[in-house]
């Protein structure tokens, strides 16, 4: 017996007007608050709607079920991560390799630490839902931003900035998520930033450059 494909984890409709955008933003913020205060298991659309100050019917206009809502929250989080690295690229034109390492690590980890209280829940959402496409898109954006920084480095041209960017991005997205099994404190975040920066700097310093 064929069961068919699962329904897509997409918004029922996208907000276009200012009021609708504000409503969706309030729902996102309420979801984060409920995740933080009540946890993933106790989160439901009724609790989120109540916290957001909207009716459940209004919430369902955009998010037809809990899974779509959680998927959208994870998507926004990943967009924040890749967006932070793109911002670091824009703020550090023609930077030296040491500064590139510091800027990339700081951008990524500060975004993670800013949502430290819900990191375990976000990690579980990524595991329980089919979020591979979302994660791959965030990785591609991040790698592209890092490659752009390396390609215009003040230290000269790296032999293969694309490969270096892919390696650094894999280290970020592969090393940091295990921290998300627990809440990452500010002190833990600073120590992780210190250690990852040392790792990234050492890696870039060791790379040959084209003359």
TrEMBL record:
<dbReference type="InterPro" id="IPR050109">
    <property type="entry name" value="HTH-type_TetR-like_transc_reg"/>
</dbReference>
<dbReference type="Pfam" id="PF00440">
    <property type="entry name" value="TetR_N"/>
</dbReference>
<keyword id="KW-0238">DNA-binding</keyword>
<protein>
    <submittedName>
        <fullName>TetR family transcriptional regulator</fullName>
    </submittedName>
</protein>
<dbReference type="InterPro" id="IPR001647">
    <property type="entry name" value="HTH_TetR"/>
</dbReference>
<feature type="domain" description="HTH tetR-type">
    <location>
        <begin position="21"/>
        <end position="81"/>
    </location>
</feature>
<feature type="DNA-binding region" description="H-T-H motif">
    <location>
        <begin position="44"/>
        <end position="63"/>
    </location>
</feature>
<dbReference type="GO" id="GO:0003700">
    <property type="term" value="F:DNA-binding transcription factor activity"/>
</dbReference>
<dbReference type="Pfam" id="PF17918">
    <property type="entry name" value="TetR_C_15"/>
</dbReference>
<keyword id="KW-0804">Transcription</keyword>
<dbReference type="InterPro" id="IPR009057">
    <property type="entry name" value="Homeodomain-like_sf"/>
</dbReference>
<dbReference type="InterPro" id="IPR041669">
    <property type="entry name" value="TetR_C_15"/>
</dbReference>
<keyword id="KW-0805">Transcription regulation</keyword>
<dbReference type="GO" id="GO:0000976">
    <property type="term" value="F:transcription cis-regulatory region binding"/>
</dbReference>
């Amino acid at each position: 017996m064929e069961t068919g494909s699962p329904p897509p984890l997409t918004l029922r409709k996208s907000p276009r007007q200012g009021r609708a955008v504000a409503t969706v933003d309030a729902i996102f913020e309420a979801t984060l608050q409920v995740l933080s205060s009540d946890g993933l298991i106790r989160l439901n659309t009724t609790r989120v709607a109540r916290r957001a100050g909207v009716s459940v019917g209004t919430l369902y206009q955009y998010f037809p079920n809990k899974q779509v809502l959680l998927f959208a929250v994870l998507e926004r989080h990943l967009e924040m991560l890749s967006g932070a690295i793109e911002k670091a690229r824009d703020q550090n034109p023609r930077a030296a390799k040491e500064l590139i390492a510091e800027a990339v690590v700081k951008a990524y980890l500060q975004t993670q630490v800013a949502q430290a209280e819900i990191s375990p829940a976000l990690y579980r959402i990524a595991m329980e839902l089919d979020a591979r496409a979302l994660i791959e898109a965030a990785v591609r954006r991040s790698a592209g931003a890092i490659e752009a920084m390396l390609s215009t480095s003040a230290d000269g041209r790296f032999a293969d900035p694309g490969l270096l960017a892919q390696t650094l991005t894999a280290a970020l997205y592969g090393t940091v998520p295990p921290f998300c099994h627990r809440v990452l404190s500010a002190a833990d975040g600073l120590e992780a930033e210190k250690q990852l920066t040392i790792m990234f700097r050492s890696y870039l310093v060791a790379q040959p450059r084209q003359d």
